[in-house]
Every structure is written in C-alpha cells, then in structure tokens.
Amino acid sequence: MRRLSASRLAIAVIGELDAANGRDLGRFVEHHTGISRQLILDLRAVEFAGTQAFTALYYISVHCARSDVDWIIIGSHPVRRLLSICDPDGELPLVDDLPSGLDLLTRSARCHQHVRPAG
C-alpha cells in the first residue's frame, strides 16, 4: 500500500488471489480507502485469480461506489482472464496499463471539480 497523494492510494497484490485471501483484500481496501478519493488496485503480479477474486473485486466496487471513490484495476493475465468470464460487459474498471489508468483517474478528478451541488 502506498499513498500517492492526499487523495490517491495504490494497493498492490502479489501472488494468488483466491478463497483464502479474497475476503481479506476486500476488507483491507475498505479499511484503507477512508480518506482517499481514488484507488489504484495493482494486480499485475497476481499469478492466480480464483472465483473468490471476482467476489472481492465486486465487493470493492460496491464499497468504492458507496464511498465516492474512483478506482481502477490493473490486471495480470490471470485477472484479465477471470474478468473476461465473470465480467464480460466490463462493469469493473479494468485498464490496460498504469499510464492509461492514471489518465482516467485524473480526468475523473477534473470532472468532480467541475460538478457543484445544486442549492
């Protein structure tokens, strides 16, 4: 885990993501995104992604939506394969690489700055 700025957090996962640790990842993200507005979930070093990995990513997605956290997933081949099966419509924010993901988050932050509450 690395805080890149006051509002941007990066979490990297190495190894396997499965039933043994998927729930822990979801809770870890939930716990550490409290003050962040943006999350980079770096799964490039994940060598195996079981179905529980998808459940964890879905949980993270719901948490981020409820907490108004913009986020991206940078995935390894196993993560991409899992998402191609479990998320064929591309609802989860999988990006091709870090530069394109950072660009997406930067554009999202600019949009939030221009939106002001009515009243």
Outline the structure in words:
It contains 4 helices and 5 strands. The protein is of the alpha/beta class and 119 residues long. Strands 1-2-3-4-5 form a 5-stranded mixed beta sheet, with helices on both faces. Helix 1 (22-32) packs parallel to helix 2 (51-67). The model has no long low-confidence stretch (mean pLDDT 91).
Mean pLDDT: 91
Helical content band: 40-55%
Topology as a string of helices (H) and strands (E) = EEHEHEHEH
Structural class: alpha/beta
Total count of helical runs of at least 4 residues:
4
Shape field: globular
Q: Main sheet: which strands, in order across?
A: 1-2-3-4-5
Q: Beta fraction of the residues?
A: 25-35%
- Low-confidence regions: none
Quaternary form: single chain
Q: What is Rg?
A: 14 Å
C-alpha termini separation: 38 Å
According to DSSP, the number of beta strands is 5
Taking the sheet with the most strands, its summary is: 5 strands, mixed
Key words describing this protein structure:
alpha/beta; globular; STAS_dom_sf; STAS_dom; STAS domain-containing protein
